[in-house]
Amino acid sequence: FQQVDIDEKVLSVFQQRAVPLVSDYLHKREEPLRIEVLKGSITDSVEQLRNVDVVIGLEIIEHLHADVLEKVPENIFGFVQPKLAIFSTPNSEFNVFFDSLLGNGFRHFDHKFEWSRAEFRAWTDNICHRYPNYSVAFLGLGNPPDDKRDVEDVGFATQMALFARNDLIKKPLATDLNGQSLPLSGVKYKEIYTVDFPYYKDERTQDEKIWCEAQYFINRYRYATIYFNVDRHIYQLPWLQLMDFARKENVSQEELLDILRNHNIQVEGNFIIMPEYDDDDDHGLCYELNDLNLELNNEYNNQCGNGDVASTAFNIENAKDDSEECWD
Fold first, then answer.
1. Shared-domain flag, residues 180 and 219
2. What is the pLDDT of residues 75-94, one digit of tens each?
3. pTM above 0.85, yes or no
4. Residue 101's domain spans which residues?
5. How far is Cα 221 from Cα 241, in angstroms, rounded to an integer?
6. CA distance linking residue 20 with residue 161, whole number of Å
7. What chemistry does it catalyse, as a reaction equation (predicted)?
8. Model pLDDT for residues 43-72, shown as the tens digit of each residue
């Protein structure tokens, strides 16, 4: 991700907004992300713009002088040739809702112009005519005030053009994509700040991923009583539940079964067969011991002959060996 602006001071002041948050370290991304804050012009054909997929120019073109604005389409649609380009600019028709404008007649002191919807459409149509590999659609941001929507149709506060390269929207390209073979402008964007966000890189093989998921599945469900076959003393786990994960890894049903068998997992029909391990007996022993403790408590209370003892918090496990008294 590259943030480009001509004003180095502004970039230096606000570069901290690109710094990763604590949450970015706690919940790492699945894909790498590098953010580069660069000083440069939107009209420069520079090496850093090669292989850029999306160009976003929000509220920028109205700040450009006519000679600079004229060069923007050549660089963006002729050199960069992104899959998607988004440009927004104020809609001058919406200005009727503002109580006052600045001395230059615009919303901002640095605006060189503010276009109507027709003027903006003429600019975008000219781009699509010069660069027929692109199609354009229009959006808007900022509705008129609720009490004035019926006054007249003035559109949105900000008008937006969404340029899509035709191959992105399943349309044929009119010309070859050879823009990045054009000569560079001979300059380079100045690097103000660069940061690589933390991300999790899974270096396991495909088989290792599937086996880890299978182990999690087996350990999670093998204690579920609905999967325990009492007659055979085995667990029967439906391995088809693993297929959702396997499909995400482009693993077929046959490949999944091979991975299970390679790890000595027995498969019968639609089920993974797991034996009744010794630790199952340990769980049963715990229940037996709990029952025994309860039985001993009852016997002790009966010997005391006092029904109130049973209502106390006394536990025989906490009684001392030499204790001979009954506490009420």
1. no
2. 999 999 999 999 999 999 99
3. no
4. 45-184
5. 11
6. 30
7. small RNA 3'-end nucleotide + S-adenosyl-L-methionine = small RNA 3'-end 2'-O-methylnucleotide + S-adenosyl-L-homocysteine + H(+)
8. 998 988 888 999 999 999 999 999 999 999
Residue 273: left if φ>0, alpha if ψ -120 to 50, beta else—which one?
beta
Residue 246 domain flag: yes
Look at the block and give the residue holding tokens 């790492």: 28
The last residue of a domain, from among 184, 218, 250: 184
314-to-147, 311, 324 alpha-carbon distances in Å? 74, 8, 14
Query: What does the H/E/C string look like for 105-155?
Result: CCCCCCCCCCECHHHHHHHHHHHHHHCCCEEEEEEEECCCCHHHCCCCCCC
b/e for 216-234, b at 16 or more Cβ within 10 A?
A: ebbeebbeeeebbeeeeeb
The two three-digit tokens of residue 316, written as one number = 């025989």
Amino acid identity, residue 78? G
Q: Are residues 262 and 151 in the same domain?
A: no
Q: Which residue has the tokens 């297929």?
A: 243
Give residue 226's region: left, alpha or beta (phi > 0; psi -120 to 50): alpha
